[in-house]
Design a protein that fits this description.
AB_hydrolase_fold, 2 domains, AB_hydrolase_1, 6-stranded mixed β-sheet, Epox_hydrolase-like, 220 residues, Rossmann fold, hydrolase activity, alpha/beta
Length: 220
């Protein structure tokens, strides 16, 4: 019999794991359920594990043990200056799943948006450890569609955000304006994917930033 919790926090457990102490890289992750089947859910950008909140209860009820990391650079995980190639990010998650949580059976692997690119690398690198794979909401690297999308003017922010120091310098003191304007231009995307939405407004990301600490356990 399924018990519906008051909030998603009643379902989940938070943890943090050192991936690379020499480079001060630590992953925040959330787990839920205790079923025999294991599913690893990797969020997109700009998101955290919380993007999966509406899927947690149904998957737990279906008998899954869920592992939902914040990949490096997102949410409660470390933000190092390097290591953002998808091969390395996949290795981060494998260290969490295989070495730390000691999952030995093949997993169901799910990736959304940028997380899909991370999970694709995971499935290629650790293919014998993946029972099934679901990728969504992003072009597949190595395809013609991916190459076409890379040059799209609508994706200008990828190169802008990737430039070292430039985004920080240009938006310093204007962070709230920049984030709000950025998502004003993408209101439908925000309403579909933000961690927290305010009724009738574009403000979910801003609200989520303010609430991040409230969602973390004490001392995490």
């Amino acid at each position: 019999m399924s018990v519906t919790p008051t909030t998603v926090q009643d379902l989940v457990r938070h943890g943090k794991l050192w991936i690379d102490k020499s480079h001060n890289v630590r992953l925040h992750y959330v787990t839920a359920g205790s079923g025999n089947k294991v599913a690893v859910l990797v969020h997109g950008a700009p998101q955290t594990w919380y993007a999966w909140r509406h899927t947690i209860q149904p998957l737990v009820d279906a008998g899954y043990r869920l592992i939902m990391p914040d990949y490096r650079g997102a949410g409660g995980s470390s933000k190092p200056v390097s290591g953002y190639d998808k091969w390395t990010m996949a290795q981060d998650i494998h260290t969490l799943v295989h070495d730390h949580l000691e999952v030995r059976e093949p997993i169901t692997l799910v990736g959304h948006d940028i997380g899909m690119m991370v999970t694709q690398a995971y499935a290629l690198r650790y293919r014998d450890e993946v029972a099934s794979y679901i990728g969504m909401e992003a072009p597949v690297p190595g395809t013609s569609q991916y190459e076409e999308q890379k040059g799209s003017k609508e994706l200008w922010h990828f190169n802008f955000h990737a430039a070292r120091d430039v985004p920080e310098i240009l938006t310093e003191g204007k962070e709230r304006f920049y984030i709000k304007r950025f998502f004003d231009d993408r209101v439908q995307v925000l309403l579909a994917t933000s961690a927290r939405c305010i009724d009738g407004e574009v403000g979910g990301i801003l609200k989520a930033l303010e609430d991040d600490e409230d969602r973390q356990p004490a001392g995490a």
